[in-house]
Amino acid sequence: MDWIKKISSEKMLVGLVSLIAIGMSFIYLGKGTGESAQSIQTKSAVTAPAGSTTKIGLLEKELESKLQTNILMMEGVGKVQVSVNFLTGIKHEYVRNNNVTKRTNKESDKTGGTRETTEITEDNQVVIPSGSTQPVIAMEDRPEIGGVLVIAEGARDPKVREAIHTAVQTLLNIPSARITVVPMGGTYD
133 pLDDT band (50/70/90 cuts)? Predict the structure, then answer.
């Protein structure tokens, strides 16, 4: 009877080692075994520094133009020049494929003891469509506004200056301290 147990234990050990080797090869090849869960995750990345002449520069010019158009429509403003400065670059969050593989092994030794091991493997890759070099973007955030300077003819009048200041603050949802409104010609009343 002992020889049967010995042969069974040896076959079981060889089978277990073979199973582990096959499982590791599946994990290495990215197929995984056992419980597998896939989910979408995102990761932030800043793509362009503030003040560059790429997308940031274009966004600054676009925002300046929109602000200037709105301010020009206000009563008593006159000529207007608007400058906008961004503190940060454009932020992208990329789609990520999160693959988690969990495998549990139970081993028995000759004396009847058992040991259980659990191996968890995580793979977190950015999703890039086939035929493309660009990752899939989940979300794109505009850069944070550092400051706005408005130079207007009508800003000599405190009521007009305050109205411009309030309009910029409302449109951009930024703190009052980041907005400066001065009269054209540079003098305050």
Answer: confident
Mean pLDDT for the stretch of residues 102-111: 84
How far apart (Å, rounded) are the C-alpha atoms in residues 143 and 27?
A: 40
Q: How far apart are CA 114 and CA 16, in angstroms?
A: 13
Amino acid 28: pLDDT: 57
Nearest Cα residue to 179 out of 151, 143, 141: 151
Distances (CA, A) of 144 to 86, 102, 169, 172: 6, 41, 14, 10
Instruction: Give the pTM.
Output: 0.50
Do residues 153 and 78 touch, judged by C-beta distance below 8 A?
yes
Q: How far apart are CA 39 and CA 16, in angstroms?
A: 31
Strands (E), the chain: 35-46, 80-86, 91-108, 114-126, 137-141, 145-152, 179-183
**Whole-angstrom Cα distance, residue 167 to residue 74?**
9
Domain ranges of the chain: 34-183
76, two tokens: 């008593």
In contact, 91 and 140? CB cutoff 8 Å: yes
Cα(74)–Cα(162) distance, integer angstroms: 12
